[in-house]
Automatic annotation (TrEMBL):
Active site, renumbered: E291, Y383
Record membrane topology: Lipid-anchor; GPI-anchor
Protein name: Peptidase M1 leukotriene A4 hydrolase/aminopeptidase C-terminal domain-containing protein
Source organism of the structure: Arctia plantaginis (Wood tiger moth)
Superkingdom of this protein's organism: Eukaryota
Membership in a protein family: Belongs to the peptidase M1 family.
Residue span, Peptidase M1 leukotriene A4 hydrolase/aminopeptidase C-terminal domain: 462-602
One Pfam entry name: Leuk-A4-hydro_C
Sequence positions that bind Zn(2+): H290, H294, E313
The keyword Zinc belongs to this UniProt entry's keyword annotation: yes
Cofactor note: Binds 1 zinc ion per subunit.
UniProt GO MF annotations: aminopeptidase activity; epoxide hydrolase activity; metallopeptidase activity; zinc ion binding
Length: 609
């Protein structure tokens, strides 16, 4: 299968002919049938003379399509392409001409298995009394909850009225309006791509974090959430100092149930986060800073399609580390901290490339997605290789004093737009047209070559020296473990230490058990530490830890943790069948993207949608 359309290999739509500018949604949430009954009114600007409109739809039951005047329109729903959905072609009664504005209304119902939605039974929630529903549309799952041009090349404003049982709270990636009985209204005046349309419906509570922020969660998590995210306003202000004003008005957080597959999702006005961030020590604040930075890179300035995903994620990781460092008063300590987190990211990049294989085309910074689902290309590569490329450019051009001005100029230039790598490169070259240092950049090696980046920045390794020394100590056959070895480690130093051990040959069973006890990692409540520790146990074939490992993967949907653990279990032949059985038993509790990718990791047939 090749590209589905000229602008985006993953979308049937043709926004170069007619482009959506606004969507009005009316949604009725049916927990019993696990569907949304929807009415979407789409407003198009016609860019070329056309006889039809082409949209993306995935397993939608279309009831009717009508023009602005109310007359029924003929339409054709094409054959379903597994995991990409169908081409929805709407025939116009007469040719629409350039500069014309069209409105059409589509009445439809989603499928109970819509890939963007997870419907949780009451038993899967913290409160155990009420069901819960939430969405995850990135990368190309919005087409399963509304007919649209499901490509990030298209940005539109939207409003919505959602009907749900009165005891439920409805939240969306928009400014919340009135709540009257069972109806809640929303308005999003900022243009956004379809993957940022988001909805969550549950019995929720909220607390105020700051002048423009609330945190939402089930009652059982609300107090922990308030404490963990109390510094949100401080992060927002630091981000504004680097990137300019925050334009989305409200910045709320929603702590979702554990099955949410990502650390966070940058839905505008309402970041979705995993409960694994509730570490009790604010050590995972970098995830919140990351999602805040998406308010500029990703949400305000967006990749044109997911072949250029690094423009979203590489920029965001790069900015996240700059902003997090800016919160440290001591300049030297700030640089050390930024470089330390970059080194941890480099470790994750190295492991990813080893997993994929250094010649795998999906380890390029700019990938070719013709016939490849964006979910299959998802990895740490666009995040870390992209961030590293920007750090290289920053160092090359004279450091933050020079490059920060370029960043602000770039964000202003492409505000509310979508772009590709060629446009980024052209703007960079033009901005620095009087500086010949850019002639030293090997663009082909950075953008189009598989494997590790051609150049690694000269990072400050001060914060890793104790870790390197401790790892070297472990090579002694008579090593003795003492809590004093790690007593002064920050949570991130412990994470770095465990990550280094994962890159080495497995430790002996005796050593891994002694270390876990002495270093107090075998009872850590920090999931970043916990997950790496459990991976070390699996790699050392510690069968006494298997029930703990299965409990962890069954109670946690975050793919960053669950996929590596399942791959490690699969590699352990003696427990491979047990791992597969455990997955199959729990697959029904997973979101589509988790089940889809884990099936591939476990070499099982992939379920299509």
């Amino acid at each position: 299968m090749g590209a589905l359309s000229p602008l985006d290999p993953s979308s049937f739509s043709r926004p170069e002919l007619a482009i959506i500018r606004h969507i009005s949604l009316a949604l009725n949430v049916d927990f019993e049938k696990r569907v949304l009954n929807g009415e979407a009114t789409l407003t198009f600007d016609v860019l070329k003379d056309i006889d039809d409109l082409i949209l993306d739809a995935s397993n939608l039951n279309i009831h009717s399509i009508e023009s602005e005047g109310g007359s029924q329109l003929q339409y054709k729903l094409g054959e379903n392409v597994p995991n990409f959905g169908s081409k929805l072609t709407i025939l116009l009664p007469k040719q629409a001409t350039i500069d014309e504005r069209l409105k059409i209304k589509i009445k439809y119902t989603t499928d109970p298995s819509a890939s963007a939605l997870q419907w949780l039974d009451a038993a899967q929630t913290s409160g155990k009394k009420h069901p819960y529903m939430f969405s995850q549309c990135q990368p190309i799952h919005a087409r399963s909850i509304l007919p649209c041009q499901d490509t990030p090349a298209v940005k539109f404003t939207y409003d919505a009225e959602v009907t749900a049982p009165e005891e439920f709270t409805v939240l969306m990636s928009a400014l919340r309006g009135e709540v009257r009985g069972s109806k809640t209204t929303f308005k999003q005046p900022m243009p956004l791509p379809s993957y940022l349309v988001a909805i969550a419906v549950g019995v929720l509570e909220s607390r105020t974090l700051g002048p423009r922020s609330k945190v939402w969660s089930e009652k059982e998590e609300i107090e922990r959430s308030v404490w963990e995210f109390a510094e949100t306003e401080k992060y927002l202000q630091a981000a504004e100092r680097l990137c300019g004003p925050y334009e989305w008005t409200q910045y709320d957080l929603l702590v979702l149930p554990p099955s949410f597959p990502y650390g966070g999702m940058e839905n505008p006005c309402l970041t979705f986060v995993t409960p694994t961030l509730l570490a009790g020590d604010r050590s995972q604040a970098d995830v919140i800073v990351h999602e805040i930075m998406h308010s500029w890179t990703g949400n305000l300035v967006t990749n044109r399609n997911f072949e250029h995903f690094w423009l979203n994620e590489g920029f965001t990781v790069y900015l996240e580390r700059k902003v997090a460092a800016s919160l440290i008063n001591d300049t030297n300590e700030a640089k050390r901290s930024r470089d330390f987190h970059s080194l941890l990211g480099l470790q994750e990049l190295s492991e990813t490339i080893e997993l994929f294989g250094p010649s795998n085309a999906l380890t390029k910074l700019v990938v070719d997605l013709d016939g490849v689902h964006p979910d299959d290309s998802f990895s740490r590569v666009p995040y870390e290789k992209g961030s590293l490329f920007l750090r290289y450019l920053e160092d090359l051009m004279g450091g933050p004093e020079v490059f920060d001005d370029f960043l602000r100029s770039y964000l202003t230039k492409f505000r509310k737009q979508s772009l590709d790598t060629d446009q980024f490169k052209a703007y960079l070259m033009d901005y620095f047209k009087n500086d010949d240092r850019l002639q030293n950049v090997d663009w082909q090696a950075w953008l189009d070559k598989s494997g590790m980046p051609p150049i690694i920045p000269d990072y400050d390794t001060t914060m890793t020296k104790e870790i390197v020394a401790l790892v070297a100590k472990l090579d002694s056959p008579k090593v003795k473990f003492s809590y004093g070895d790690v007593k002064k480690f920050t949570p991130h130093q412990m994470i770095h230490f465990l990550q280094q051990l994962l890159e080495r040959p497995p430790m002996s069973l005796e050593h891994v058990r002694s270390m876990g006890k002495a270093y107090k990692v075998d009872n850590s409540k920090n999931t970043e530490i916990q997950y790496r520790w459990l991976r070390l146990c699996v790699k050392s074939k510690d069968d006494s830890k298997l029930s703990e490992v299965f409990n962890f993967v069954n109670g946690n949907g975050r793919m960053k943790y669950v996929r590596p653990l399942y791959r490690d279990l699969y590699a352990w032949e003696a427990v491979r069948d047990q791992a597969i059985d455990n997955f199959l038993k729990n697959e029904k509790n997973m979101m589509h993207v988790s089940a889809y990718t884990l099936r591939k990791d476990l070499h099982l047939s992939v379920t299509s949608v």
